[in-house]
Specification:
Elements lengths: L2 H5 L8 H17 L1 H17 L13 E3 L4 E9 L12 E8 L6 E3 L4 E9 L11 H4 L2 E8 L4 E8 L5 E4 L6 E2 L4 E6 L2 E6 L13 E2 L5 E4 L7
Antiparallel strand pairs: 1-13, 2-3, 2-12, 3-11, 4-10, 5-6, 5-9, 6-7, 7-11, 8-10
């Protein structure tokens, strides 16, 4: 890897208009007062960095559930998947990954399979790190049927400053592990509902890398 690649990352197309808006405002700020312009430069660089879309390399071994988001594991608890997905009304282990405004916000598929349902639900914009955000906040839910027939659900949840959830996929699409399926603007969370009996291999407070960090092993159904 070249040194410049460490600092300069590809930007997701969703971010282009936002960076353009920030840059235009920065030009106006320079006309008003030079120090304000430099503050605008910093904000524009942050906006570009927010929409960065680096390449990720998922683990080669099959049967793993990978983190769908960069961030910190904020919750691990039993919960029933969103009712709008039509999954059984049974509590599963839910792992929540909280993204702050400095994390990469491109979301990636946690395991390979076929999308069987997607459902958008409008809602509030509470702090995404709160437990009740899973119920009250704006969300986009997806259900995926794995190759072994089991189902996994994952949910994009808007946060305090997030006002737009973007999902790139539809029911019937086949997704590979680590494949991009959406993003959220600007600070949010992604929940993963593991199949029944599958235990998480992460802990609260652990830092996650989307598309690379292992959340769980689908072949391991007993606590480790």
């Amino acid at each position: 890897m070249r040194m410049r690649d460490t600092f300069i990352k590809p930007m997701h197309p969703e971010g282009r208009k936002f960076v353009g808006i920030f840059a235009a405002i920065t030009l106006v700020l320079f006309l008003i007062w030079n120090p304000l312009g430099w503050i605008g430069v910093g904000a524009t660089v942050w906006c570009y960095y927010f929409f960065r879309d680096p390449e990720r390399v998922p683990p080669a071994r099959p049967g793993l559930v990978i983190s769908p988001a960069d961030g910190i594991v904020s919750l691990i608890e039993p919960a029933v998947p969103p009712a709008e997905l039509g999954l059984p009304d049974v509590a599963l282990t839910r792992v929540s990954v909280f993204m702050n405004v400095f994390n990469c916000h491109v979301n990636r598929t946690p395991a390979p399979g076929v999308v069987t349902a997607t459902a958008y639900r409008p809602g509030k914009f509470l702090n995404a790190s709160l437990d009740k955000a899973s119920v009250d906040n704006e969300r986009m839910s997806l259900a995926l049927t794995l190759d072994d027939g089991r189902s996994i659900a994952f949910v994009q949840i808007a946060g305090l400053v997030a006002r737009r959830i973007v999902c790139f996929t539809k029911p019937g699409a086949r997704l590979g592990v680590g494949e991009r399926f959406g993003l959220i603007r600007f600070g949010s969370r992604v929940d993963v509902y593991l199949p029944d009996g599958v235990e998480p291999l992460v802990s609260i407070g652990q830092t996650m890398v989307a598309g690379e960090t292992v959340l769980a092993d689908l072949t391991q159904t007993q606590p480790v």
